[in-house]
User: Fold these one by one.
Assistant:
Number 1:
Amino acid sequence: MPETAGQTFIHTPTPGLPEFDYIKPASLTAASQFLAEHAGEARPFMGGTDVFVRMRDGFWTEKYIVNVKGLDGMNDVTFDPTTGLTIGASVNMNRLIASLEVKEHYPLLAEAAHTVASYQLRTRATLVGNICNASPAGDTIGACMVLDGTLHIHGVDGMRKEPLSTFFVGPGQTVLKPGDIATAITFPIPPAGYAAKYIKLGRNAIGDLAIVGVTALGFPDRGAPSGYRVRLALASVAPIPLVPTQAEAILAEKPITEATINEAAQAAMDASTPIDDVRGSARYRKLMVKNLTRRAVTQVWEQIRE
Amino acid sequence: MAFHRITLTVNGEIELVDVPSNMTLLQLLRDKLVLTGTKNGCAAGECGACTVILDGEPVNSCMVLAAECDGAQVITVEGLAHDGTLDPVQETIIEQGGVQCGFCTPGILISARALLDRNVDPSDYEIRDALVGNLCRCTGYLRIIDAVREAASRAS
Amino acid sequence: MVSKEMASVKIPDLIGKSVPRLDARDKVTGAARFADDLQFGPGLLYARIKRSPFPHAIIKSIDISKAQALPGVKAVVTGKDFPGFIGLYLLDRHIFCRDRVRYVGDPVAGVAAVSEEIAEKAVELIQVDYEVLEPVLDPEFGASPDAPLVHPDLSEYEVVPFILPRAGTNISNHFKIRKGDADGVWNSGQCAAVVERKYRVPHVQHVPIEPHVAIAQVNEGGTVTLWGSSQSPFAQRNLIAKTLGISQSDMRVIAPYVGGGFGSKAGVSMEALAVAIAMKTKGRPVKLRLTREEEFYTVFVRQGLVAYFKMGCDENGRLLAMENKFYWDGGAYTEYGVNMTRAAGYSSSGPYEVPHVKTDSYCVYTNHPVSGPMRGFGMPEMHAGLEQCIDDLAEAIGIDPAEFRKINCLKTDSILVTGSKMHATGLPQCVQEVIRAIDWGRKEPPSAPHKRRGKGIALMWKAPAMPPNAGSSAWVELNEDATVTLGVGGQEIGQGTFTAMAQMAAAALGVPYDWVRVAAPVDTQYSPYEWQTVASRLTWSMGNAVVNAARDARRQVIELVAEAWDEDPEDLDIVAGEVISYKSEESISLKDIVVYGLPKPNDSGWMGGPVVGRGTFMPTYVTGLDPETGQGERAVVHYTTGAQAVEVEVDMQTGAVEVLRAVAAFDVGKAINPELVKSQMEGGFVQGLSTALFESLQLKDGVLQNPSFVDYRIATSSDAPADIHAIIVEVPQDDGPWGARGIGEHSMVPTIPAIANAIYDAIGVRPGPPPFTAEKVYLAMLDAAIAE
């Protein structure tokens, strides 16, 4: 177990991975059953990029590591002009980024995925894994939320769907239950005339975790008083990926001007509840929510009003 | 702990090995197959010294379980040269002076080879982006970037 | 034909030629062996270390019984087993803690087992009972009489004569400069401008990409072999042998290629742990390999610094006086770190001529990680504040900062802070070169409306900091085919020293470069003595030894041929592997002479034989300094000087700093291999940039908060500037080989202040201590009401 000195945690991972048994079930049903039967001592993995790190750290001590990659069509990217996009849970981020359908219809997904770590890590990392990992800093979660993604879950009772809006419970915590395996995420056809942007502030120019991440997706909407709707999602500024609804409401209701954007940015800042950590202070994070929300919304607005 | 009998191809050689569940591909390469060109710099997927090509794509071999690699094709730095002829990225990194201590070099070369395999004419930004996961503490990167650019131009 | 005059006077063509590195091919094919790559067979045991979780505590008891009982465990050792002290300049450290732990990570016990996993489990089974003590977490407080003592027995420790610990305090070295009368200058009001500043520099890590690894084996007779990633095979042999009470000849260190050192693999850090454990494993080799996380907090770190500067100049901008006070956060043990505080003291004026200087440099024990040498050896930390302060003083007197530096920088024959004269130096030329190359004074428009640009300049100087009598040696042996085997004890750590040495040997001997092989790995049993691969001293010191060895071999060959041809040795030369006579125009291939010698006429016997040249070098002229004034005849062997300038862009909405381009000019005396020299300038700049923008060991109550690459960020390929323009200045060193002096460390010394000054130029605000993170810069701008 990780060592502590009094109340202070000391990060002392082991040189290698702890002992566990590697399990590769033949089907989703078998996988769900195994995971449910070994609740608390079995963990599914996709890319493993977070699982292995946490096991070395001693945070996760499962006896069984269950490879759920490549089961029953989880390795596909499919696009249907009427129903939208499906990304299988095993699809790695580099494949996602390279997908022509993603590039053409959902470039925001590729843009966000591209900011994750490094190319070689993205060979292993998956979009669905990034979501299920439920890090408040997850770079792709915001994109999935503003694109209205739905997770497809295989559990002991069969398939079900989970909207992302209610999926996250806390840092690393989701509504998934023992036996649940996310098999894919689907996205509807995006709104006509939309534009979107992910702005990430990290320590390095490329490749770092987000100190703050802002995702914005805007589109013309006659139903909105302003004529537009802008969906927003914020990373690293709350225990779960945060949707600043007040800011969205301001942009829907008031004619979009520089002042309105500023007001929305301020509302996003007010909605955020970041913490101080080694990557940045809460104060700075809040200020950056404001500045980067303004920047992201302005860029989106400049594109959609044309 | 369970062992798994796997067959994989490494640098064109077919290998049959028994690996424990918790063995990483990096440990398999270094400790069982004695392919020590692939380096262990952090065991956390951060430094890139252990980068190898797995089924055509670069991965951090410390982040892959050996047991997953049944049937896989792996290329390590030892597999870049053929019959004594260096890969263009190996040649150009020597010429441009992109090697100092040499510990990050195997991972850099693998990332560079993989980049040129998927993009024959990368921009400077694309080269830098492709190498972000390969930390180098000696060179300051510029000569490595020059080497990748030069290797690309030589191929075209 | 080459004329005799040309050959003897001219610098050989090979010197100043950028030949390819001789280790490159092995390094690109994966063939190069590093310590962790060596194979020891199934008998190899694996070590792990039980470490202190507290920054400061008394060890009340250690129970190793459960660990010993674990199947697969072969040895468990504690401090009880090893009473000796170890250390380079001040013996203040045991191999394993005996009665007290002094930092989080201090080794308390060691385990050897048949696998790393079992060793790790055994470590968890060791129970240590501690009595927690109040830690010292700040060097300024640590130096005060109120601080608890980290080393109550300081007065009893063995120490070299030039280090001055203060008994009954936490001050393990106090170095003083009293040159002229700084107090008198302040009191007289002669200064037209005076600035006083305080700076903090955080701890940083070396971050070699290869973590520390050591493999030790102790045979039945008690002789020890250590294989390790080492900058200092001979120093390790010496220090570990002394501690264990064995002869240096019974301790052998074998050091293959080093995957980055930067000082972290100098002296002794974790190597002694492996040796100590191996003493209890009955002949089986033991490997200790640090995890990346251990690498961050258990091996040498670059110490923190709290620095006070007071500087004054006259109305023409001429520096009159400086008063500097340095509190170095030396950490738990300062056996090596003490000498950095001395180096900072005798360099405390920076590269400037200042008539009146008062300096107090204190090495202070704290309960932080152990300070050790890191690229620049105290100079990057000291220059970080000094060169910002110079900018502020220039501004206060209303002179352009580059102009101010031109006025005050050291010139040949300037009087140094220690009272002696500066040797020939190209520093003024370096300043000129960077001013020109960065287009000083021209402000470029920013790349976006929310960004601002600025330029900054900083100078540096640094001497090799080492004992006055650090020596080098080399041998040169000719093989049957006239290829040359060159024996050296200095280490190839990436800087290219094997290549430079091969060039020098080839040039001095008269053979092509690619005829020279370096006898590697360095092995203290066969390789010639070298003090350590540190201090940027190899090109100069080991280079002199290599040249001497090659000339010795050359002399042997020429005397032989002169005798055979009945000619004057003065008329002979070796060119491209042929012995030639300028007089008779005879020639003979080296391969026809070396090893087997030459036949005497008429089958009357043989002359000559195997050719082995030997060479040594040790400076003999470094004197002591007065302990009260720091004045003396010659404090150091020489100083390498240089300058950097950078252009940065600051994002007014986030505070993010981007270094757009950099220029660097250093006086290297003579560049033996210009591309390798430039490579050092580039690599050092980016390492400096990394410490300026990203790096700090975030210590909270003595516990490191960011011991991994996830949160200890270093510069990546995306952070290097678009261009680093490296300029070589060559004003020869009188006792350097062909005039050469070192460059390895210097290239990162001025980088933090150059970037800080550029940020100030861009936004008019100084963001506080490095690293200049986006957050720090933004909040500083917010305070100044200029942030967007």
Number 2:
Amino acid sequence: MQLPLLLEQLLNGLQLGVMLFLMAAGLTLIFGVMGLINLAHGSLYMIGAFACASVAAATGSFWIGLAASLAAAAAAGALLEMLVIRRLYARDHLDQVLATFALILILSEGTRWLFGSFPLYLDIPPLLQGAVPLPGGGQYQLYRLAIIGVGVLVAVGLYWLIARTRLGMRIRAGESDREMIGALGVDISSLYTIVFALGAALAGFAGALVGALQSVQVGMGEPVLILAFVVIVIGGIGSIKGALVGAILVGVVDTMGRFLLPQILALMLPAAQAGMAGAALASMLIYIVMALILALRPRGLFSAEA
Amino acid sequence: MSARETAANILIVALLTAIPLAAIVLDEPFYLTLATRIVILALAATGLNIALGLGGLVSFGHAAFFGLGGYVAGILASHALNMEPLVFGLPATQSMPVIALVAIAVAALVALPIGAISLRTSGVYFIMITLAFAQMIYYFAVSWPAYGGEDGLPMALRNAFPLVNTAKPLPFFLVCLAVLAAALVLFRLIRGSRFGAALQVGRQNPTRLAAVGISPFGIRLAAFVISAMVAALAGVLFANLNRFASPSMLSWQMSGELIVLIVLGGKDRLLGPLAGAMLYVFFEYTLGGLTERWQFFLGLILLGVMLFARGGLLGILAGRTRHG
């Protein structure tokens, strides 16, 4: 097996991990601060992708599309929070699951209504087209490398926001004692709207970035949402650090599993069987990793509640 | 059970019997298919309700067991049809009772480890983990080409049931109805038993349960496994109804639908899942006939129920339950 191929797969894993982090950070923040499980987070991812693809098609600029995706997802998030989500904070998780499941139906069918059933396509912006050489003689898509870079920037930015700013201080205070910060005069309900819109913007941003790599279509959000659930379960619900570690772990394990398992099995089995068993096993690998981690640490690696 | 709930239950059963009668009188066999669909979905949701309604275990992964049942039916039938033995030279079969037993056993074997791991956690972790395990089984089914992969597994014939011609709609409906009735009896027996009492106290106040010396874990695991077994049985019937074991039976949407059925009808009620299934299939049929975008309106209705009518249909018909 050659080194460049391995390196390429490793970078692909990192890129997937970074995307998952953008989704999982919002989910875990919303759960940590408001105690809400939001299934419709995948729909916000889809909204971001559709906003970016349609605005980029209309204006001819990916960058305006990217800005539109942030704005559209944040606005959709704020609107949803004010209309529906804030009525769910006091409810149990079953009610939250069902109400946000209903939101998925509404948003998915609504999007299909607006944009039709055909997927949209988004081109990689000219600035980021092309490839960069890898050590050992391979090449790697510049755009994917840029996504990894953006993800790292967002992680640093989030850390700064939460650890160093007044808003972050309020978010952390909201996580540990919501009655107290309400009593201290912080407008808790607009804080919740801001947190929800922030999570939505991150999801929409992720959707827009991925939109240039795959087709933009209804239903694109839910597989990513479920992976993001695996990420935050592994990382510990409510912990941004856990979301980062979990996302990278899931991204790399999933990608490397799909790449390596068939080859490893090929050492023991005939080629056709090894390919089949390897692919089936690889598709289950992250769930097996999740089960193992939970068997050892039922509240995840970095649980905020522990 | 209050007099009003009894009246509401009688109404629901009367409606359910009216559909096949209407099908025969109006000579519309399609209504019989709808009624069978209602009964099978109600069976799966009744199974889930053992875990969710009684035990408060919000499993977002019961499609896994529902789909496993479907695949057991499809795989055994296709082996039997092609005269291929199963593993270790065991003969395959077309007999529905045998297939149902195999499906129940398989579901129990799968639910045991999944439940044991998932029940180490609670609340929102439990929801996400059951969802994740169901996805694992879904992806396995989709990526394993031997039994259809993404295309699913068609069944040439319905499984055979002794003395009953399952190929005809009415006898098949009656078989499904009998199984649902048995499952409802099981649900009532469990709810009234010592085990059921412990399960419900575990939902309402686990500390009190522990204080009388009962550990919630074993009780919940038992409820989870029983509920998976009932869901698998429903899966066998569902695959038979459609003569198709589809990966969509394993999908997360299916898990969501099963929860929707319970909550639409009214959770913690004996006939809640049946009422929910009737309402759901009614919406699917009428809204689906009016517009291609029926799921949009279903979402709106569901959201309305969640926000404003928390007891579901039975909550409206029969008033509030006496105890939470």
